[in-house]
Design goal:
Layout lengths: L17 H14 L4 H4 L5 H16 L6 H15 L2 H14 L3 H9 L7 H15 L6 H9 L4 H24 L15
Helix pairs in contact: 1-3, 3-9, 4-5, 4-6, 4-7, 4-9, 7-8, 7-9
Length: 189
């Protein structure tokens, strides 16, 4: 028999007080709902605040990288890490920007050869940074530049990939359960 999930104590919204109540309220205002990945921070509400600030900056802030590409990177990194939670959440969002379900499925499965070259190079970069960060080199950046990406876009894509590696490890390391499809509706994307 496996241990109940998540594997640490989580304070539910209805039991939140003080700083946690305030941070939950801020998160609800920004995101529309509280996800399990938000509530896993309940024992350290300031970490949730910092997490949300970084997430909002990387995924919604000013950037030449379109939202579609940001979500594609989220899915590519999360699938490389085996993080079903983040794959499901961000494939749901990607579907708002990418209408070809077979294309999204190719990203979910890591079939980069099925993608247009500009998307494939971004996904390969995200996957290599996830699986082999110590082997990254200037050739990896040259491949992104050859596909037409600017230094600013490369920075943003790399930061998004690094962020999802961070989040995947929280989800996987603390046993955060994936909400059902109905519960995942209502987030502000």
């Amino acid at each position: 028999m496996s241990a109940p999930r998540p594997w640490i104590r989580v304070i539910a919204p209805e039991a939140a007080e003080g700083t946690l109540r305030a941070v939950y309220d801020e998160t609800l205002k920004k995101r529309g709902r509280l996800a399990a990945v938000h509530m896993i921070h309940s024992l350290n509400p300031e970490s949730l605040r910092a997490h949300m600030d970084l997430y909002m900056t990387l995924m919604f802030g000013a950037s030449p990288v379109p939202r579609r590409t940001r979500e594609m990177v989220a899915v590519a990194v999360s699938r490389s890490n085996g993080c079903a939670y983040c794959v499901a959440h961000h494939a749901d969002v990607l579907a708002r920007y990418e209408k070809r379900s077979e294309y999204i499925q190719a990203i979910r499965e890591g079939r980069w050869e099925a993608l247009v070259p500009a998307d494939a190079v971004v996904c390969r970069h995200a996957e290599k940074l996830t699986r082999q960060p110590g082997s990254m080199g200037d050739g990896d950046i040259a491949a992104l530049k050859s596909s037409g990406l600017t230094d600013e876009e490369i920075l943003d894509i790399t930061q998004i990939a690094a962020y999802f590696n961070f989040v995947n490890r929280i989800v996987l390391g603390l046993g955060v359960d994936l909400e059902d499809a109905d519960s995942r509706r209502g987030f502000k994307y």
